[in-house]
Amino acid sequence: MSESETPSSGPLEGVRTIEFGQLLAGPYCASLLGDFGSEVIKVEAPPKGDPMREWGRERVNEHTLWWPSLARNKKVVTLNLRVPEGQELALELMAKADVALENFSPGTMEKWNIGPEQAMAKNPRLIYARVSGYGQTGRYKDRVGFAAAGEAMGGLRYINGYPDQPPPRSGISLGDTLASKQAFEGILLALYWRDARGGNKGQVIDAAIVDACFAMTESTITEYALTGVVREPSGSYLSKIAPSNVHKSKDGKWVVIAANHDSLWKRLAVVIGRPELAEDPRYATHRERGDREHELYAMIDEWAAGYTAAELDELLAEANVVSAGVYTAADMYNDPHFRERGLIVDLQDPEIGTMPVPGITPKLSETPGEIRWGGKWEIGADNEAVWCGLVGLTQSELGKLQEAGIV
Question: Where is mean pLDDT largest: 38-42, 166-170, 348-352?
């Protein structure tokens, strides 16, 4: 996919977003907006820009592999938000925008005189989205918040992992991504209310990592409040939801086999060569199977160990039983399904070359998203286009601001 700055035809075409902030929780939300057509102008602090330019575990040609995908479809400008001249320019940008997005600690934007009150005084239709660790209100709002802490307080860490072991984290920044998606949802709702429902004004979106993680915890709070039971970590399966677990194949790979619905259980019983169990009253219902989950898992373990992962996949798919290999990055990359779905697409990066990156989800039939260009390596690459073309500075004014380190 070659770099092209032709206008988008996505569903958010015409929506201008100003992205403030850094790292992941805010920028990922802006990436989603850009994928679906929003004009995203990313504001970075001079002279180094977003630390995400340097973050990432692996490198090619001395460049991180995260930035081109995270910063795709974004125009990049520099601006020092800590000085009055930079703050005035930030307000000018927001005056010409539909969405402002930030993920600084609560109170930071207000300290810089570019918070919602100041910005919406200049642009009442502005949607001002804020992503933080603990939210803009509540007793913990002033705490520094990262995904690890949000996942812990939000309940995800405790119920993950195995009993009597340290609560593990996911191998990704899950809390950041969940909060980004909640901010994305909030922005879309606010746009709909403003434009389609006649609200005709902006509003503030308050998304937090703790909130987003807590929202994923299903009925755990209700269970505790009404029965006194704290849901505990259960390892590779959910207790009393059986059978649904991972099992090791003959060739040492893990395979998920899930047959906790009555009809699925009957099919699995036939596949594993125990058709009589389909009608056995000890396993006939969801509750009874849950009470005997360890018996079932031992039985399925023994059966699965006799086949390779590929053989299990074929047998279970043919029987219409839910199953899937536990994929590594290599497995996903090499499975044609991911290309067929557009989940992996090729991006042409001037510094790295052809690089596969995550594609766009969800899939829209009439207004699909697109990657128009990858993240730009040159810091302030769009300074002239934005500060002169959009805000109206002269070349001389821009030059003086650059010399002063303001842009």
Answer: 38-42
